[in-house]
Design a protein that fits this description.
Strand order of the largest sheet: 1-2
Helix content: 40-55%
Structural class: mainly alpha
Shape: flat
Radius of gyration: 24 Å
């Protein structure tokens, strides 16, 4: 088994063999996705350069796919008076969490799967 802690409290069974195969497949898919993401980033950089040189429109279609180049999300820098109010709001939120007057909810469960570094 590649991850002995995944089944730390059980012995090797047909179910654990199946789990091993599932985990191995997850790792293979994650590795392939990383490789594809790296290649995709290079290709996007290449066509972005064409947009920057006005050799390609920022919106176009190709083989029934739509492509749209976006400049990025707007970021705002606020005056100190607004930042002060934001700091007060954050402190009030932390206090409400600490004293139990804030209600905690959870979103949809998800997995985080990453390679050991």
């Amino acid at each position: 088994m590649n991850c002995p802690t995944a089944l730390a409290h059980s012995t090797q069974t047909p179910e654990s063999d199946s789990l091993d195969r599932q985990l191995d497949r997850i790792i293979a898919i994650k590795t392939a996705l990383k490789s594809l993401d790296d290649e995709l980033a290079l290709l996007k950089d290449s066509i972005s350069a064409l947009v920057d040189k006005a050799e390609l429109d920022h919106t176009f279609s190709f083989n029934d796919w739509n492509f749209t180049y976006s400049l990025g999300r707007a970021k705002w820098k606020y005056p100190s008076a607004v930042n002060s109010i934001d700091t007060q709001l954050k402190a009030a939120k932390k206090a409400a969490e600490a004293d139990g007057s804030a209600t905690k909810t959870l979103g949809v469960p998800f997995w985080t799967i990453s390679e050991f570094r």
